[in-house]
Amino acid sequence: MKNMKIYLGIGVAVVAGFFLVAADHIDAPAVSGGTSDITDFYAFQGQDTDNLVFVANVQGLISPANTGSAAFDENVLIEFNIDTNDDKIEDLVIQAIPRDGKMYFFGPTAPSVTGLNSSILTGNASGSVDISTYGQSAVIKEANQMKFFAGPRDDPFFMDFARYGDIIAGNETAFANPGSDTFAGTNVLSVVVEVPKNLVGSSGTINTWVESKRKQ
Q: What pTM did the predictor assign?
């Protein structure tokens, strides 16, 4: 079992059926410029309304010229945390870690330990998928009622940083409509897992957050 230590976590509450998003592009000093930086976290109801989709994007602001060589870090675990009883402690986790061109998924299952350290739950493998290649069709794998994807995607987050700077400086009072997308033309590496709702709690409400954890 491999012990991992948290480098960045983003938390939001999710009510099944609603779309939630959190974003943080290269702001945290501990991960700035590294391979464990989480840029976005999305959780939403799937096209199949009995499912939830979890998305973690890492390594933001990748230029098209550099996307082909961008790669997931094999020493970084992506962990989706799910709190089913509102005590702000993960009751279930879904883990994803890359190895030799594939992304391997474990869970959802109860973690062996909660908090900042994790062990890869090798006894609870749920599936794997070939990491998609930039410029090629997306590879999606289905197994154990779940769907998996990992690979480069266009950065989905919209932010007008120049206008934001003007507002902070007191030179403007509001964002322009339409604004200018600072992230246009840049890419991220995405990890996506779609899972039946009945595997992540049946109360109707969960808390969920994502963490990247580096091998120690």
A: 0.85
